[in-house]
């Protein structure tokens, strides 16, 4: 069986799909990944093709969005449905490159990243089944039922209708822990197996220090972005805050995924370690007691798998949804950039309830079905 994995160029979308791709490949199937941009570097040794343009939803290409769409991306959305117009726009943008990649490979089945309408459109055009692979805690809902309404011109150009989309045999792979968000109806639950690409964790950071806390601090693959967020000003206030807290509490902080233009490693005070090179986040978290991050799906899933309490500072639409779900489960709390202070971080370090809840979710994830257990279901869908 030939299986094509279609991902947006954002690494966070492709990383969760790599374990299932390898499970299928290990079972003898011909697997290919088609993506672009940053995601090309995280395909985990799988055959990969570059289908072209940069992600229109990325920070550097945001001016391509209409003003109304830009506002949605940076809004504090409560549901995915509020962002459907943006998702429709993104689907239209990626249809042509994804269709070209699929026609070249001629797959028997397509696996595409979550909420990527171009994946379903490509499957409909080729007449093959489609599997949507989740990347976090978001719920797809009725997005694909509404897709034809969102991109009528694109479908007309391709000679497709809503009926063609509805006729595609579909499945959903859901990697969210059910205790954090209800499973999507009919979805195939899958344990999230962290894949962070290559890299080496320094030896002195692989184990937790005795007698003191160690907090991982990351702004994720996209950084702290938003129309009202000055990342440089935020870091200018944030780094001294961590240094002060390190002196007061004897905690240490490991900074990763932060633009080196904003940090002078030689001027960092004791208690702050800056890792310039890419490191596998999940392995680093084994040596940490908590994490402070931007609320992104990939970072949060790694923290859940590690069983760590979390403090998030969301600034972009999906990260607000992730952060609220995290807080509602009792795993920590979220604050705005202006609300982040010493007290918020001290609370993270002393929150025993969050630590206990994080251990529960970690055990829950460990009990979810593995990628190998889904191979037969994927094969059956393609028959």
Automatic annotation (TrEMBL):
Keywords: Glycosyltransferase, Transferase. It comes from the Bacteria. GO terms for molecular function: hexosyltransferase activity; UDP-glycosyltransferase activity. One of its GO terms (biological process) is antibiotic biosynthetic process. Residues 248-381 form the Erythromycin biosynthesis protein CIII-like C-terminal domain. Residues 22-220 form the Erythromycin biosynthesis protein CIII-like N-terminal domain. Signal peptide: none annotated. PANTHER family: STEROL 3-BETA-GLUCOSYLTRANSFERASE, STEROL 3-BETA-GLUCOSYLTRANSFERASE UGT80A2. Belongs to the glycosyltransferase 28 family. This is UDP:flavonoid glycosyltransferase YjiC, YdhE family.
């Amino acid at each position: 069986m030939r299986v094509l994995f279609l991902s947006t160029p954002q690494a966070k979308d492709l990383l969760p799909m790599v374990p299932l791709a390898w499970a299928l490949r290990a079972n003898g199937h011909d697997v290919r990944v088609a993506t672009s941009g940053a995601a090309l570097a995280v395909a985990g040794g799988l055959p990969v093709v570059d289908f072209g343009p940069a992600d229109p939803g990325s920070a550097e290409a945001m001016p391509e969005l209409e003003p109304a769409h830009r506002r949605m991306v940076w809004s504090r959305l409560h549901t995915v449905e509020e962002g459907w117009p943006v998702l429709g726009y993104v689907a239209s943008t990626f249809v042509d490159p994804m269709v070209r990649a699929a026609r070249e490979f001629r797959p028997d089945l397509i696996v595409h990243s979550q909420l990527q309408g171009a994946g379903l459109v490509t499957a409909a055009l080729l007449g093959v089944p489609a599997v949507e692979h989740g990347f976090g805690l978001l719920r797809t809902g009725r997005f694909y039922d509404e897709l034809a309404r969102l991109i009528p011109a694109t479908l007309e150009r391709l000679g497709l209708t809503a009926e063609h989309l509805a006729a595609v045999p579909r499945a959903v792979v859901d990697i969210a822990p059910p205790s954090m968000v209800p499973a999507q109806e009919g979805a195939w639950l899958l344990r999230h197996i962290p894949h962070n690409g290559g890299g080496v964790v320094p030896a002195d950071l692989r184990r937790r220090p005795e007698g003191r806390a160690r907090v991982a601090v990351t702004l994720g693959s996209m950084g702290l972005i938003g129309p009202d967020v000055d990342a440089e000003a935020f870091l200018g206030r944030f780094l001294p805050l961590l240094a002060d807290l390190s002196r007061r509490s004897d905690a240490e902080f490991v900074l990763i995924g932060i633009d080196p233009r904003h940090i002078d490693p030689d001027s960092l005070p004791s208690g702050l370690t800056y890792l310039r090179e890419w490191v596998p986040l999940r392995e680093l978290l084994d040596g940490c007691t908590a994490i402070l991050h931007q609320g992104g799906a990939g970072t949060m899933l790694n923290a859940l798998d590690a069983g760590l309490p979390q403090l998030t500072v969301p600034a972009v639409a999906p990260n607000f949804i992730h952060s609220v779900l995290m807080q509602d489960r009792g795993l920590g709390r979220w604050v705005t950039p202006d609300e982040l202070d010493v007290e918020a971080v001290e609370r993270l370090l002393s929150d025993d309830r969050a630590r206990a809840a994080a251990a529960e979710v970690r055990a829950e994830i460990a009990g979810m079905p593995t990628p190998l257990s889904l191979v037969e279901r994927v094969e059956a869908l393609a028959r």
